[in-house]
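Dear Dr. H.,

I hope your travels went smoothly. While you were away I took the liberty of generating a structure for the chain from your last submission, since the lab meeting agenda had it listed for discussion. I wanted you to have the full record in hand beforehand rather than looking at slides cold. The sequence, exactly as received, is reproduced here:
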Amino acid sequence: MSLDYYDRFGKPLPDFVVFGRLFHDPAYQTVRKARVGGIRISTVWLGLDHSFGQGPPLIFETMVFGDRMDEEYFRYATEAEAIEGHYRMARRVRGWRFWQRIEDTTEAEIAHQRAFRERERTA
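The corresponding predicted structure, in token form, is as follows:
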């Protein structure tokens, strides 16, 4: 079985080195993140095809961390599908917790990661 790597646009990557650089860039890898109370919902670019030859390459994943749905996940072929799936999952996690709002933490987390990398470079 060959390993197939794809960028966020679904285009094949030439090799593992290019994939590795992108995969280790949190700003590139992170699609969306949210919290509902203490439960986290994370949607990321995987880059590696998780379809196992059954349909289009599945290169994005939404996963829940915490509560009854801990480690429940869905995978997607496109970034648009992943974003839609992320918000669908956030609403599902919220479920009966109608008093808790869905807090999108994507931008703050990406800004924090960029600042951390910049401090590492200048240190």
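Two observations you may find useful: The longest strand covers residues 30-36. The helical segments are 16-23, 26-29, 79-94, 106-122.

With kind regards,
E. W.
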